[in-house]
Amino acid sequence: ADDAAAAPVADPSATEVASNAAPATEAVSAAPVGAVANGQVVPELPAKDYDYLVVIDLESSCPEEDIVESVAEVIIFAWLVVDAASGTISYEHGTTHVRPERLPLSAYTTRVTGVESAELEEAKPLAATIAELQEYLESQITSQGKSYCLVTDGQWDVRQGLAPEAERKGITLPAELQTFFDLKKQYTAFTKHEGATPTLAVMAAALDNVALESGEHNNGIVECRNIAKIVCELINRGHKFQVPEMVSAYSKTVAGAEAAENAASVTGSNTDTVVQLRGLPWQATEVDVVEFFSGLNIVPGGVVMCLGPQGRPNGEAFVQFTDGQQRDLALGRHKQLMQSRYIEVYESSQVEFDGAKQALSSSDSDTFIIRMRGLPYSATAEDITSFFAPIPLADNGIYIVQTPLGRPAGEAFAQFPTLEDMRSGMERHRQMMQSRYIELFKSSLEEVHRVVEATTRQAQQAAANEQAIAAGAQASGQFVVRLRGLPFSATVPEIMEFLEGVEIETNGVQIALNASGRPSGEAYVQVCSFPDMQKALQHDRKHMGPRYVEVFSCSVQQMMAGLDPRSGTMRSNRGGYGGGNQYGGGYGGGQAGGYGGGQ
Hints:
Elements lengths: L35 E2 L2 E2 L10 E9 L13 E10 L4 E10 L9 H7 L3 H4 L5 H15 L7 E5 L3 H13 L10 E4 H9 L8 H8 L12 H17 L8 E2 L7 H14 L6 E5 L7 H7 L5 E10 L5 E9 L2 H8 L4 E3 L2 E7 L2 H14 L5 E5 L7 H8 L9 E5 L5 E8 L3 H8 L5 E2 L2 E2 L1 E5 L1 H32 L2 E6 L7 H7 L5 E11 L4 E9 L2 H8 L4 E3 L2 E8 L1 H7 L6 E3 L23 H4 L1
Parallel strand pairs: 3-6, 6-7
Antiparallel strand pairs: 1-2, 3-4, 4-5, 7-8, 9-11, 9-13, 10-11, 12-13, 14-16, 14-19, 15-16, 17-18, 20-22, 20-24, 21-22, 21-25, 23-24
């Protein structure tokens, strides 16, 4: 955060309301990409000259001062575009308010940001805001054959703000929005700055020609302009923004883990990269831990789930990150939620990590199971066998995980006859099945049992919900399904063709639009009867063009909640197929949001 005493900029506490910024005395690490830093190999990205640099600044809510980020949500999203060749601002989008799930805002948030709860009531949710940014970048930059990369003032905006909140809310972020230049690091590398982490005020003062704007509150676009001024000055002085950093995918490959251990042995183990978690739900898995730290880079093989004397999870885990800065950011997740439980995050050491890893290896020496994630929904046991071929699998050694509704979840477990076979299987990490790369994690029989038990409970609850929806639909005589994942170019006739064999009410198809008035990829369809509703559900995850489409049953109450204007997407004004009634049989008015009340 910037120091207001050094230059006329915002109060340091206002830069990121919910951030846990590094202390002013902590130096910025500028280890070269591909080198060994903090005992680990820094992931290497190829050097590249970008045509545009997209400066972003986020501000988040926070319940009260000094409260952890467990309920932090983005409420301001500002961005502008810098022409990397000329070192000038080429487009300024401005400041966008973002509607959080939790309102009203705390008095602390309003005091720091100047944003009132009423200003956010009609704002777009984060998903729509990200979609708007993506639409601009695709239409104005990538479609013209140009390239871009994000720029932020520090690590918070992407690693602690955008990436983890998107993960929590099920928003898919493309790689481009998880790749960024940290201005503090770029400035440090170019100027050979030493000592405390440079603030915008320090950078501006050292560069002489930069006059920063000021504001009473944390104004996103003002912050973007100040970042952009530093960026442009660095460009004009000859600095090249060529090697960004990115939020890396977690690797559990044996080869990757051994590489990390070898790197650590070269420099000596470093105790500044490990944290200990306490209070984990008993059913928590390695995947849950990785998702809890979404946005941060974990070393290959860097998650150890601890077991008690009876070989059952004891609610603890150790996690090793790629460097000390990532570890410090991880400590900022202290008392955030995982499955409705507050998780404690504490500093730990390499010695404790290694001890926990050895204990786990000893207790799990006779199970050779791999968890697969990212499977195509159409994947079968035969596809999984082919993926690992010619490595043998154990008899009846494949379990495909299903969602509570009995649909493939995109995950599976594969059991191998020997440890060597499992290690060979782990080398297939991130290889392709059909058009998707598959992530692999070492697992255990205990984890399989936990997943099966949890899925069974969730399936029972989902069945009860489905029965309630069906009963309500039959009682009211109104039958609705929701489609998600439609191609943006999908038309009403194409939707009707997709639901071939299903009788649809006149004007019963409504295509939802986003805040920019463009198709959002969702639609609501009113069908004529309960059997038609069941037929429609059988089309779930079938393809329309290159995309598979999800189909859900939907109650009248959920539909009306989804049509709430605050949900951030709008109904198509085209009414529906075959007529001009904008309400489409009672379901087209207002704005169409997400399933079950605008999620």
